[in-house]
Design brief:
membrane, transmembrane, mainly alpha, 152 residues, transmembrane helix
Length: 152
């Protein structure tokens, strides 16, 4: 018969097994926190990815606009160059200072101006409001009128 006063002894392996079980069950709360943090980070990465995509599209549009502006600048520079050439050509055609000009003769193929138009009276100046010069009387065709105010 066995003696009931024997002490039970636990081996080293049993103690390690108990410690592992305790560690597994005690870390359950940390796993939830880690998975929540991981989910938040995933959401932030998706948001950042969408922002980067939008910025990339905007950058592509700006590059296109910049290319168009560069083409416009090049066209304007070409036009300025052409105008500068035309100005130089005109300057070369201008007479030198002090050059006397001979009067032109009338071309018989061109009709003479209507003599009635040459003798036509000068057009009358349109009346103006107020005075043309300080101290001058107002134009005789204009006069100030005071209108009565209508009351309701």
């Amino acid at each position: 018969m066995a003696d009931s006063s024997q002490k039970a002894s636990l081996g080293c392996g049993t103690l390690i097994l108990i410690a592992l079980i305790v560690m597994i069950f005690s870390r359950g709360g940390e796993d939830k926190k880690s998975s929540q943090k991981l989910e938040v980070l995933r959401n932030e990465m998706q948001t950042l990815s969408a922002s980067v995509s939008a910025m990339s599209a905007g950058t592509a549009e700006l590059k296109g606009e910049l290319q168009e502006l560069r083409k416009s600048v090049a066209a304007l520079r070409d036009a300025i160059g052409v105008q500068q050439g035309q100005i130089s050509d005109l300057k070369a055609l201008m007479p030198k200072p002090g050059t006397e000009f001979q009067p032109l003769e009338r071309n018989p193929d061109i009709e003479a101006p209507d003599p009635d138009l040459e003798s036509a009276p000068e057009p009358k100046a349109a009346p103006t409001r107020g005075r043309s010069e300080p101290g001058a009387p107002p134009h005789p065709e204009l006069r100030e009128e005071t209108l009565p105010l209508e009351e309701d």
